[in-house]
Amino acid sequence: MASSKSTAKKRLVRGVRSPGSRLARGSARAARLAKPEAAKATRAITKQTTALARRPKNDALAKRESGEIDVGRKAPSFRLLDQDAQLFDSYALEGKPYVLYFYPKDDTPGCTQEACDFRDSLSRFARRKVEVIGVSPDGPGSHARFCDKHGLPFRLLSDPNQELAKRYGVWVKKQNYGREYMGILRSTFLVDKKGIVRKAWRGIRVPGHVENVLFEASQL
């Protein structure tokens, strides 16, 4: 009799679940259910982030980030050495229209052709009272030799740290035979007498380019 009572008591004890145990099991179940939901939320956030990263940037924002100068904006000021190792300040250009052209390297075929085209058309720029200025990373000595060799009568500025090139957004990543490197994107900017960029040519081809610049200069 005592044995049957003891067995019944044990069954009763096993059948009674404490509030604490029910709470623990409920928490575990909630955690198991929450895991898929959390994973789903994480995947959704990752998907949104990826989509935002891949979304094309607004043109104006992309230009601001790269330093690219928009037409209609104020031209950057500068102070650089010229071919005579004299410091030239853009303050001297106030009230005057000018052409600022960036080229990769002195005395290379494309750069020589471009410089000679500007040289041959310089009198026509002068009639429009437009000054022509070339800029490259080469030093004053290299510029002086380049000018002497090809009879270039206009100012060439040395931008060895690419400070001005970066401000105009023409110091860019380039590729050649699978090799990546930083270099000058051949570009020209026409600035009016108020110091506003009126025309920008980027990544230009040399043949016929100076004629295009002349035409736009005649419209100022």
Defining key terms:
two-stranded antiparallel sheet, 8 helices, 220 residues, Glutaredoxin, seven-stranded mixed β-sheet
Number of helices: 8
**In which order are the strands of the major sheet placed?**
2-1-5-4-3-8-9
- Number of extended strands: 9
The CATH superfamily of the largest domain bears the name Glutaredoxin
Which class best fits the helix and strand makeup? alpha+beta
- What number of structural domains do the residues give? 2
State which percent range the strand residues make up.
15-25%
Could you give the distance between the termini? 118 Å
> Spans with pLDDT under 50 lasting ≥5 residues?
7-16, 44-66
From the 3D structure, determine the CATH topology of the largest domain. Glutaredoxin
What about the largest sheet?
Answer: 7 strands, mixed
Q: What are the secondary-structure elements, in order, as H or E?
A: HHHEEEHHEHEHEEEEH
- Sum up the overall morphology in one term: globular
Description of the molecule:
The chain has 220 residues and is of the alpha+beta class. It has two domains: 53 residues; 158 residues, 3-Layer(aba) Sandwich (Glutaredoxin), CATH 3.40.30. It is built from eight helices and nine strands. The strands form two sheets. A seven-stranded mixed β-sheet has the order 2-1-5-4-3-8-9. A two-stranded antiparallel ribbon has the order 6-7. The longest helix is centred in the first third of the chain and has 36 residues. About 15% of the residues have low confidence.
Topology:
Layout (H helix, E strand, L loop, with lengths): L1 H14 L3 H36 L4 H8 L12 E4 L4 E3 L8 E5 L6 H12 L1 H6 L3 E6 L3 H11 L4 E4 L4 H6 L2 E6 L2 E6 L2 E5 L5 E6 L6 H10 L2
Parallel strand pairs: 3-4, 4-5
Antiparallel strand pairs: 1-2, 1-5, 3-8, 6-7, 8-9
